[in-house]
Here is the input.
Amino acid sequence: MAELRGVGIGLGVAQGPVARMAEPLPAPSDAPSERTADDETTRVREAVSAVARELEQRGALAGGAAQDVLEAQAMMAEDPSLETEIDARLAQGKTAEWAVHDAFASFRDTLTAMGGYLGERAADLDDVAQRVIARLRGVPAPGVPDPGHPFILVAKDLAPADTALLDLDKVLALITTEGGPTSHTAILAREKSIVALVGVVDAKGLRDGETVIVDAASGVVTTEPTAEELERAQTRAQARASAASAPITDGALADGTDVPLLANLGNPDGAADAVALGAQGVGLFRTEFLFLSSSQAPTIEQQRVSYEKLLGAFPGKKVVVRVLDAGADKPLPFLNDAHEENPALGLRGLRALRASEDILREQLTALAEADAATRANGGGADLWVMAPMVSTVEETAYFVALARDYGIKTAGVMVEVPSSALLADRVLKHADFASIGTNDLTQYTLAADRLLGSVASFQDPWHPAVLRLVREVGAAGQAHGKPVGICGEAAADPLLAVVLVGLGATSLSMAPTALADVRASLLEYSLDDARRIAEAALAADDATSARDAARAAAAR
Here is the structure.
């Protein structure tokens, strides 16, 4: 028996035989084409278009975050710059297969050199290239295997197109050798409730057919398990399934302390599912979906319709809307498409909105009108509005004052950079609430891009430096009598959720599929327990030991 360690997604446990992802297609030959350049161009155009449409169709079937990712991949496939690169190679008499391979590789190297979010998207580009080449060859694209029975899928990483449409009757669990807790694979696995471990470097040695146990709660893959270990894992899996089907209650600790459990949503269409899974409201509504698929900003009317749909789905419940968070991984031609050497540290979030204030004013107008309209119909929600990427007290005062001008009664800020966490006592003199985005807070605290696999080991919200910053914000919220929510992926980690409450968080927001696990975890501990477990984690020197210390304290 051996234990392989990685980062677990959720609390699930599964067992079964391994099936490895197929190796990529071999690189095409650089031999001259026997076809004319025009014929090869036609082949490429047809193949690229077919792949783009397939990605869009997969996205439409998957919905949610997967749809956003796959639509972005489809746009990547048809990028005019790539088309120009391919045409240049075809004009030299190359085959369509080699032109696609070489042009995509060149483009990938450019993205990799840029680093950050764009560097991480290089892996997506490889997947698109493989699909186009497979189409040109008339063979299936490398993808998820089908051994004819349920299996544990092992891969270097999964392309979004594969993760989005995994057959959950066949795929018992997912193990990747790369990626971190906020990678696309992890986010989509959490959204689909797939038992998963990411960043399991030693999983490269797993063989097809060997039986393993995947324990996401402890972040361990057990190889060559004994019959007793298999039985114990099965018992845990059954207990978890029973807990998931138990009657839904509001979020609370064992001593009755209320901890509202809210949903992170990317568009209003997910509201019904969130309510069905027990969401007590919305802790993060991302408004980017209205802007990202357009060459110009949506009108006030277009925005108002979507906001009314959202607010109407949560009558009397808290709904926290984040104004447009553009920049870094989400450049927009009408807002901030200027090239930046390091966009994660550039004109993004509230900074970008202040530079184009008319867009912010129109969004606040649409939100205020939607709020008034739903209240007039007797089905309004409790609307809270927050600004992203706030880094100074002055930015806080600016946004809150502007929101007040438009009739927004509850205006707050996201704490995603260390400066706003360290100055939380002053920030909360102006803001009505704070919401901690642990994904960005972790990347800026540890100087580790949250979407870059090469630094995934640093991108862990369990790190005591991150937890200390959360404590600063929690203490400021308590001193001012103002709510402090968590809306990053950390809230979906059942034990870390307990720690966050112990550090002063008053609500937790997450992907709706994580609600049941977090609800069950909170009910095991009192507020005193949560504070004691949090102190144990804070006393550690690194993320791994903080997690271990919290587990030990929780067991006591």
Remarks:
- The domain at 261-555 is CATH 3.20.20.60 (TIM Barrel).
- Residues 43 and 533 are 60 Å apart (CA to CA).
- The mean pLDDT is 89.
